[in-house]
Design goal:
The complex is a heterodimer of chains A (705) and B (141). Chain A contains 18 helices and 34 strands. In chain A, the strands form 12 sheets. A 5-stranded parallel sheet of chain A has the order 10-7-6-18-29. The longest helix of chain A is centred in the N-terminal third of the chain and has 24 residues, at 2-25. By secondary structure, chain B is α/β, with parallel strands linked by helices. Helix content of chain B is 44%, strand content 16%. Chain B has a 4-stranded parallel sheet, sandwiched between helices. The longest helix of chain B is centred in the middle third of the chain and has 18 residues, at 79-96. The relative contact order of chain B is 0.25. Classes of the chains: A alpha/beta (705), B alpha/beta (141). Chains A and B meet through α1, α4, α5, α6 and α18 of A and α1, β2, α2, α3 and α5 of B.
Amino acid sequence: MAEKKTRKEPAARKDTKKAVTKATHAPAPAATSPDKDLGKGARIGVYICHCGTNIAGSVDILAVQEYAKTLPNVAHVDNYQYMCSTPGQKKIEEDIKEHKLTGIVVAACSPRLHEPTFRTATKTGGLNPFRFEMANIREQGSWVHMHDREGATAKAKDAIRIAVAKAALLQDLIPKSVPVTKAALVVGAGVAGMQAALDLANAGIKTYLVEKSPTIGGRMSQLDKTFPTLDCSQCILTPKMVDVGRNPNIELMTYSEIEEVEGYIGNFDVTIRKKARGVLTPAEAEARGIVGGGCNGCGDCDTVCPVIKPNPFEMGMKPRKAIYIYHPQVVPLIYTVDFDSCVKCGLCVEACGEKKAIDLEMKDELIKVKVGTAILALGYDIFPIEKKEEWGYKKYENVVTSLEFERLICASGPTGGHLVRPSDGKTPKKVAFLLCAGSRDNTGVGKPYCSRFCCMYSLKHAHQIIEKIPGCQPYIFYMDIRSFGKMYEEFYYRIQDEGAKFIRGRVSNVLEDPVTKNLYVMADDTLLDRPMKLEVDMVVLAAAVQPSADTDRTRKLFGVSCSLDGWLLEAHPKLNPCGTTTAGVFLAGVCQGPKDIPDTVASAEGAASAASIPIHMGEVELEPYFAQCIEEKCAGCGMCVNLCPYQALSLVEKEGRKVMQVTEAKCKGCGTCGGFCPGGAIWMQHFATPQIVAQIDAFLLGGEQ
Amino acid sequence: MAEQEWKPKILGIICNWCSYAGADLAGSARTQYPPDIRIIRVMCTGRIDPLFIMKAFVDGADGVLVSGCHFGDCHYLEGNYKAAKRMFILKSLLRNIGLEDKRLRMTFVSASEGAKWAVVVKDVVDTITNLGPSPLKEIGR
């Protein structure tokens, strides 16, 4: 082992030289320091931030400062209350000149938070911004060792020593500017996706709006009324749907899914699978030379189709044919063939006649588009509430979910807006609403989070039955009523005044009378502190929401993370709720976490604005963490070429032998090649082998180089 | 160093996108864990040359923690698979040279798993503390 060590170290030093030589003739990074100087003559400035008492409360700042002064290459050490403040940054800017610093270390919070701030200060002071290194002594120091001052102080000293060792070997790097394609992608055309697409399109950006179902509109189009204004959901949504349908900047792709995503911010190459719809639009018909043909939505095919299936838009409570539209207001008004149930009898083709809109042999198509930024608006599904067996969903006919209730009370729904019991078609006189059905559930069956909009729509449901069915009594079983939005609390009072009964208690059990099909709701009334048993005609479960079925697959294509419960992870929960850690990919609506309609629309507008910025800027800077080939060391084995997930590497012929070459625009800087190369011939900029080895040595050998 | 004062020297090499973010989240949530670990940030666990880890052991590390994204969640598609493969091979190498392979640990902590990060660090510190100082420490010097 000792032998290995001695062999490794000179190799590392050699790396350093070669890389700088390399960097001088590489296109992007301009190395200003001659190779001999890398790491030698380094003068590092170290700044220790108190962050008020956030750091100083658990770390002995002065002890750390005294320690930092003893480290090799450290030319100047200072501390300050808030390094990120203007005076804090000024210190760096002025000291660079005064102390002729070549590198900066700030020991403060996480680089994920303030690295850009201090890079800017480093740049303002006259150094290359990549000559900055951060020591995280807050998130990974004082905050996690709050009551261990000695441990936290020792850890801070080590963190600074490690950072100084790297800072001494940092190089000048120049970020690569790449042009941004003036087009955007929005995935999902519910109200969030539609709003985002409209905003982008109205800002003059060509927008591809991809929706997996045959129509746009999403969940909102299934709702009857919206709280607290009681606007008809369809009435306020359909104008937007029509706008989307005819906006010249929006290319609407319904019944389509994202198949593959390649590239990076500014230049995403997206492959979209246009599923075989079996029906031609007028434009597609014209392209096939059928003049005046294509689907006009007349529905003649629907009339003759012999196959009957449940309509998922009506939550399966209304039939549709194998050739279908979800509802009369669909956009685009084009029928779709469900090839899973179509028997290919050809009756629809006959009925369609001269329009020749139906092609039962249609195949899926793959379409490639190029976009600069993308927005995910993937929406939600209802939690399968039958998993909470105690409430009897799918066991008792008269237990329905709130989304089924929406369709049953909606004038365009399966019953024409007459609320009836599924078991016998009778109008119910007593309806129980069970809130937090599967939400705020720590049993492991349901979801631990609050689904946020169930309280409000259940109040609306109570209002609707009071209004529509004279004498019908709603009972609302709740844990807390969360009516936090604008005019929401007032709406709650109104429903109380209208006579809805509120029972604070979680329902333990729902049982059915097998003869009458009435239901017994068992609960504990926690305000009156007594158990109760209530006979009702119908139970409505305000089921929890969960990420839509396709969310996990789609997010992975875009490299977006999710939290434990599956909702997509924003770049920062408070300050960047629409961004993600993948540059150029943004989130809109419920896929980021449960939201009501106003919040969804606001988040969509935010995402659209964020997604339009790089496009309007015209170019973006990529962090220059590219791989570089040290050609003298490269044996041309080509192992790295296959390791690269982005096809950024290739073998080229140079001076009679094969060496690896990096296409910088494709390289994302992961370093998978550099972690493997058996000859140590790959130089990962900013995470180079000598830099990392110096960090390891600094930690374990106490800073000796 | 007196026996009762011995604290393990543990190096953590963790990826920027998942585990480093998870460790930051543990910080924001003030989740407490033992301080006996020092972190080096890389963009992806795929960057980790097994020689880095050998170097750490030669330098006298008592344990090394490599932590990345969950499988399928890698910011660079598959760097964590590559890393896991390398760590797997490296572990057998450690056994071959007579070093307990428990001294090297690879875990997967996502950006939303702050609490898990704290549990992982505590567990690693406990494991290494129970193993005692690395036998390489004496030979290496």
